[in-house]
Q: What sequence folds into this?
């Protein structure tokens, strides 16, 4: 009977220690943060992520990680961030970067643009993205390119430039022009792509494909 009570007491002690580990661990040098692993960054500098954490020399892996994640998520070009503990002395920072959809002229160089038409603080030369060039960071134009990038990757890959023409959008693809409304659907983009592929199979050259009209794609053979 006494042996059973001793075993039960030991179990309670283990539970108590486990429950108190975060509180106790913050005071122990063994659990101080000695290494930070940054994953998910392609265009953003890992140093920028480390600086955003603002870790003190006494930071512990048992400190609340939510403020750390919020600081990283507040960086320009970051969609979301998560900070996980890696005992005994490491943190793993997982970053979801904002996906660029285009390049636009800025000053003497180029800048990356996201799906909302916002400029991203990424260095284009860092990843050398092969993206369409837009005349300006236009939100409607950027949104159309983002939908195309996600749902019509084959067509998006052919686009080298894009600009607004009045209320419409013009894309340059393989030396030809594609016309769309800014709110063009994925189905309308697929229809234009299907016509382009059919004309290519037939060996027929064209100047423009116009997908602005419901249920049809207009082919223009010359630029006149």
A:
């Amino acid at each position: 009977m006494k042996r059973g009570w001793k075993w039960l007491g030991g179990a309670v002690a283990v539970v108590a220690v486990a429950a108190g580990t975060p509180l106790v661990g913050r005071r122990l040098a063994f659990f101080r943060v000695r290494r930070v692993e940054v994953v998910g960054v392609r265009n953003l500098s890992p140093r920028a992520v480390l600086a955003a954490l603002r870790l003190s020399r006494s930071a512990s892996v048992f400190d609340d990680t939510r403020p750390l994640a919020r600081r990283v998520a507040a960086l320009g070009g970051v969609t979301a961030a998560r900070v996980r503990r890696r005992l005994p002395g490491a943190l793993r920072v997982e970053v979801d970067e904002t996906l660029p959809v285009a390049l636009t002229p800025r000053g003497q160089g180029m800048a990356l643009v996201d799906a909302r038409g916002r400029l991203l603080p990424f260095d284009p030369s860092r990843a050398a993205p092969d993206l369409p060039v837009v005349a300006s960071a236009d939100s409607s134009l950027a949104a159309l390119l983002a939908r195309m990038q996600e749902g019509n990757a084959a067509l998006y890959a052919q686009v080298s430039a894009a600009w607004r023409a009045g209320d419409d959008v013009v894309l340059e693809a393989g030396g030809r022009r594609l016309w769309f409304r800014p709110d063009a659907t994925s189905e309308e983009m697929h229809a234009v792509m299907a016509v382009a592929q059919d004309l290519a199979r037939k060996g027929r050259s064209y100047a423009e494909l116009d997908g602005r009209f419901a249920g049809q794609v207009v082919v223009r053979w010359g630029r006149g």
Residues 1-19 have pLDDT under 50 and may be disordered. The CA atoms of residues 63 and 173 lie 52 Å apart. The radius of gyration is 27 Å. The helical segments are 2-25, 46-53, 66-73, 124-127, 139-151, 153-158, 186-201.
